[in-house]
Design a protein that fits this description.
Layout lengths: L1 E3 L9 H8 L5 H9 L3 E3 L2 E2 L11 E4 L18 E4 L3 E6 L16 H9 L23 E7 L2 H12 L4 E9 L6 E5 L2 E3 L7 E3 L4 E2 L2 E10 L2 E8 L6 H8 L24 E9 L6 E5 L4 H14 L1
Parallel strand pairs: 7-15
Antiparallel strand pairs: 1-4, 2-3, 2-4, 5-6, 6-7, 8-14, 8-15, 9-13, 10-11, 10-12, 13-14, 15-16
Helix pairs in contact: 1-2
Length: 304
């Protein structure tokens, strides 16, 4: 595959540039290609520190997908929708999406492998078969996976074009005065903690989150968030940036956890997308899980 850089793109991080122009590839997968010498410019392999010039052409050698080597595990899944092209799953809080250091098994991918076998797309490599987008371990809710490479590319293009709609619900700390608003602030890697993201102009990507109030309580607010972009930890970073971190988020909010709650009170409630085979618009919805409704019940009791 060939990527010719525009003047506006010149000087940027080569891994980010390729991932932006080839949305079917994750940035980590692009970095792997760079490490393997599969990205060349002017006939020579380049590293991720390479800064291209206007008009430079990058040749990206994407290998044929390897057969998934993830171990299939018979883990129950809450399947909201499934056909021969896509599967939409309501992921429980606490489940990691794909295997990674520290989480070799028990992930959503392990469960998908048991259910779908070799049907899952291989574009994102052997550890992420079928995975088009992710949600955090301690975020519950909807996630769509692709069962073939054509479906994966189609869905990835919708993600890149901001037409795959993702709506979340959350409880945030503090009382939001306005009824609705938008956070338009670029997100990049935290300068001192590589496990965190932050709002920054340095090596960042545009990020936009639209929010509206659903219910107010003394000291807390129940909100709905719609993602226009999909950066890592986007809602968590944006809400903390405006002074209203997600309840229970000990990474971007208070270090002391909320009693009885593991991780943040954040749920991916709705997904709307165009089906890769039929071209029809589809919508999936996952009701608020018990942990979330229990928090709302307690807040309503305290506000009476």
């Amino acid at each position: 595959m060939t990527v010719t850089l525009t003047a506006a793109e010149a000087g940027g991080r080569v891994d980010a540039l390729i991932a932006g122009r080839m949305p079917e590839l994750s940035r980590s997968f692009v970095q792997k290609l760079l490490e393997e010498g599969r990205v060349t410019c002017r006939g020579k392999p380049v590293k991720k520190s390479f800064r291209p010039e206007p008009g430079d052409t990058l040749e990206v050698d994407v290998p044929e997908p390897e057969p998934p080597e993830v171990t299939a595990e018979d883990i129950p899944l809450d399947v909201v929708y499934e056909d021969r092209d896509v599967i939409v799953v309501n992921k429980p809080k606490g489940m990691v999406v794909h295997p990674a250091p520290g989480h070799p098994g028990g992930t959503l991918v392990n469960a998908l492998m048991a259910r779908c076998g070799e049907e899952l797309s291989g574009i994102n490599g052997v550890t992420r078969p079928g995975i088009v987008h992710r949600i955090d371990k301690d975020t519950s809710g909807l996630l769509i996976a692709a069962k073939n490479d054509a479906a994966h590319k189609f869905l990835a293009a919708q993600l890149a074009g901001h037409t795959l709609s993702r709506t979340y619900e959350a409880v945030v700390v503090g009382t939001l005065r306005e009824d609705a608003g938008t956070v338009d602030a670029p997100i990049g890697r935290h300068p001192t903690d590589r496990k965190k993201q932050c709002v920054t102009d340095k090596n960042s990507r545009p990020a936009v989150t639209h929010w509206r109030v659903l219910e107010r309580f003394p000291g807390y607010t129940h909100i709905e968030c719609r993602l226009e972009t999909g950066r890592t930890h986007q809602i968590r970073v944006h809400m903390a940036h405006i002074g209203h971190p997600i309840l229970g988020d000990t990474v971007y909010g208070a270090k002391k956890p909320w009693p009885g709650l593991e991780g943040q009170c954040l749920h991916a409630r709705k997904l709307r997308f165009v089906h890769p085979a039929t071209g029809l618009e589809m919508e999936a919805e996952a009701p608020l899980p018990e942990y979330f409704t229990e928090i709302l019940r307690k807040l309503r009791e305290k506000s009476q």
